[in-house]
Amino acid sequence: MRIDANKTIWRPTQFGAANIGQTFWSNGNKWRKVSTRTASIVYPERFVGTWFYFRQSDVIETAIK
Domain coordinates of the chain in residue numbers? Predict the structure, then answer.
């Protein structure tokens, strides 16, 4: 787990466990899950709209609510 500057706690999980529409961090980028296999970049802004395929077992970080 890690805590960011906004005091949000992020925990590791797998891409398949995230809900569609949920934001998460992976490889230094912030993403939004678009479908069961794809996600688009939310941050950094210069890459917004770029999307990639993810495996269900890929490790991501999601916020603890």
Answer: 2-63
